[in-house]
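hey
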């Protein structure tokens, strides 16, 4: 049995805490809101995020030092905008031998850093090579209900990846390992942009043909930028690539799909975010991916179109018209160049 702190008591953090508790680990669930911690400990519920009973063995706290004291592993599951401040606090109190696992999906605008890179910068005593990322097609609602789910954990340190695998794996939560941390993080982050597009398409009343096109050409964009940054192209055919893309683009559980759907129906971005009441990572990641594409001179027309909707206030139909009337090209150009390499 391990002692594990889960930092972040949203839906995904709560679901992962449940998996760990089911595996008989000693789990502390940290939230920055004292009233939320008290409610979880009193009612064994986290009603804003998940409609399910939480095992009484999970102890919630709003004191981070109390949460991480003596822990073998720390699972960071906060929105990407909170990664730096949380890690700054964590750097001064974590145990030197703890393993850091993160399950956050996003890219930081302007710096264009992945989450593992932000952790490395904010916790100098912890090696980038030892950071583990957990990602894959995994709606929190289904994980909390113990429905069969498969994910991947990745680290350049294979031993750390195995530690994370052993912590989480059970008969309803299967965990694979990988050393392609760049591909795993980019797949998990960039699919949220494509899910916004899929939601917009559905909101406009378009059918399965349009959504299939967005998902397929979206995967080409993810692969194009991912391999440019050093990812293995095969990673994007796996759980954190195609798997996560399918789940996020096709389900009402997906915040990014729901946000896109409302935008497609004519609502403004500000109204949508107010209505959602939870973080929609794809919005922030779209801005970062657009900057990344410009910096790397990589063609990402779907990402650029969604950026135009979110930032430049173009209408979805204007963007669809532009995408459908781009210059003719060979479909497999992207993949042919990858095969040559």
């Amino acid at each position: 049995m391990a002692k594990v702190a889960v930092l972040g008591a949203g839906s995904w953090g709560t679901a992962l805490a449940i998996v760990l508790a089911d595996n008989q680990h000693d789990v502390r669930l940290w939230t920055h809101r004292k009233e939320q911690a008290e409610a979880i400990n009193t009612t064994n519920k986290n009603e804003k995020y998940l409609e399910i009973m939480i095992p009484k063995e999970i102890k919630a706290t709003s004191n981070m030092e109390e949460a991480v004291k003596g822990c073998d592993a720390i699972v960071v599951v906060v929105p990407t905008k909170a990664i730096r401040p949380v890690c700054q606090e964590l750097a001064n109190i974590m145990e030197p031998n703890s393993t850091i696992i993160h399950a956050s999906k996003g890219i930081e605008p302007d710096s264009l850093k992945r989450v593992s890179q932000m952790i490395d910068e904010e916790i100098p005593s912890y090696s980038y090579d030892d950071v583990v990322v957990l990602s894959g097609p995994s709606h929190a609602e289904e994980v909390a209900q113990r429905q069969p789910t498969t994910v991947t954990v990745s680290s350049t340190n294979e031993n750390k990846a195995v530690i994370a695998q052993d912590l989480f794996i059970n008969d309803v939560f299967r965990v694979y390992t990988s050393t392609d941390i760049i591909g795993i993080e980019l797949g998990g982050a960039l699919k949220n942009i494509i899910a916004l597009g899929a939601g917009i398409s559905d909101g406009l009343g378009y059918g399965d043909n349009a959504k299939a096109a967005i998902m397929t050409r979206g995967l080409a964009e993810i692969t194009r930028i991912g391999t440019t940054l050093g990812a293995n192209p095969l990673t994007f055919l796996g759980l954190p690539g195609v798997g996560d893309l399918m789940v996020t683009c096709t389900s009402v559980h997906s915040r990014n799909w729901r946000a896109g759907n409302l935008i497609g129906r004519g609502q403004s971005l500000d109204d949508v975010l107010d209505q959602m009441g939870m973080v929609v990572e794809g919005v922030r990641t779209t801005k970062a991916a657009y900057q990344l594409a410009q910096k790397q001179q990589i063609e990402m027309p779907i990402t650029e179109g969604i950026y135009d909707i979110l930032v430049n206030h173009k209408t979805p139909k204007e963007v669809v018209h532009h995408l459908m009337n781009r210059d003719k090209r060979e479909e497999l150009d992207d993949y042919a160049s990858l095969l040559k390499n």
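The chain has a mean pLDDT of 95. The chain has two domains: 3-179, 182-340.
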